[in-house]
Amino acid sequence: MSDLEIPRNRSAAPLHVPRVSRTSNRVRTLAAFSVSAVLLALVAWLGFQLQDAACATDFSQKGLVPSMSHLFGTDWMGRDMLLRVAAGLSTSITVGLVAAALSALIALALSLFATLGGPKADAVVAWMVDLMMGIPHIVLLILISYALGKGAVGIIVAVAVTHWPSLTRVLRAEILQLRQSHFVATARKLGASRLQIAARHMVPYVLPQLIVGFVLLFPHAILHEAAITFLGFGIPPEQPAIGVVLSESMSYLSAGMWWLAVFPGLALIVVVMLFDLAGSSLRKLVDPRSSQE
Fold it and tell me: What's the rounded Cα separation, in Å, for the pair 11 and 263?
């Protein structure tokens, strides 16, 4: 009798405990994604509203240390650093958003072309992926941005052109598995064209992976935008941006104005961490395997 009761007790626990655990994990993941997305949207909106105030100068207030009246201090022109950091983050988020969206679309188009275009198309896309991943990002970013006259457009194009290879590999692998499915084979026998199969079956299938990849591209786009702007190949100095703020602060660190670099750098790290939290949370929500972790 005891031999029969042992399996019964063992099988009873997994039927109840993991269900509660999965629900609580999903609620926490959804809450983390919602909070991080709201905070990022709030930062972008506030920064956009403060663009003019961030450029206002007051030489009677220049070089002030952080205080209650100026939480992040002021720079050598009397501009409030809190306003400049907020405006710079808004610019970085906007540039990263557009660049990541374009890069995700490039990855989707190339993955569809590789899987539906035959072996030659697949070989061409694989060669392009290997080529792009073999070139250092920062070098290619600088060359493309400089060739396009720098500015926001140059950064967006440079980031979009250089950040698609990893996502292309993921989408290509997913579409290759889908291409062997029965409903795709049935649609092909019924006379559906390659474009119809891609639009009706393949794009909706890889949409969760595409959205997650798009979100995870944000941190890379923002960091690379700040990096090439810091080096002088990105957004012009008259426009508030984190890279511009950090680049200008280098000339004044020796004078003891440490807050010009510390607060913008910390703000950039926080924004990147928020993007990473949003991306990892979204991945857990759309992936059935990781949603149970």
Answer: 54
Of 80, 115, 84, 132, nearest in space to 197 by CA: 115
* Structure-token pair, residue 200: 């009706």
Residues 55 and 91 sit within 8 Å (Cβ to Cβ): no
In the chain the first and final C-alpha atoms are separated, in Å, by 36
pLDDT at 78: 84
Q: Which residues of 124-158 are buried (b: 16+ CB within 10 A; e: fewer)?
A: ebeeebeebeeeebeeebbebbeeeebebebbbbb
Please say whether the beta carbons of 253 and 68 come within 8 A: no
CA separation for the pair 119, 223 (Å, rounded): 36
Q: Which domains does the chain have, with CATH numbers?
A: 2-292 (1.10.3720.10)
pLDDT digits (tens, 9 = 90+) for 98-108: 988 999 999 99
Helix (H, G, I), strand (E, B) or coil at 74: strand
Q: Please report which helix (H) or strand (E) contains residue 46, including its range.
A: helix 2-49
Contact residues for 102 (Cβ-Cβ < 8 A; gap 6+): 156, 157, 160
Amino acid at 127: W
The string of pLDDT tens digits covering residues 158-169 is 888 888 888 898
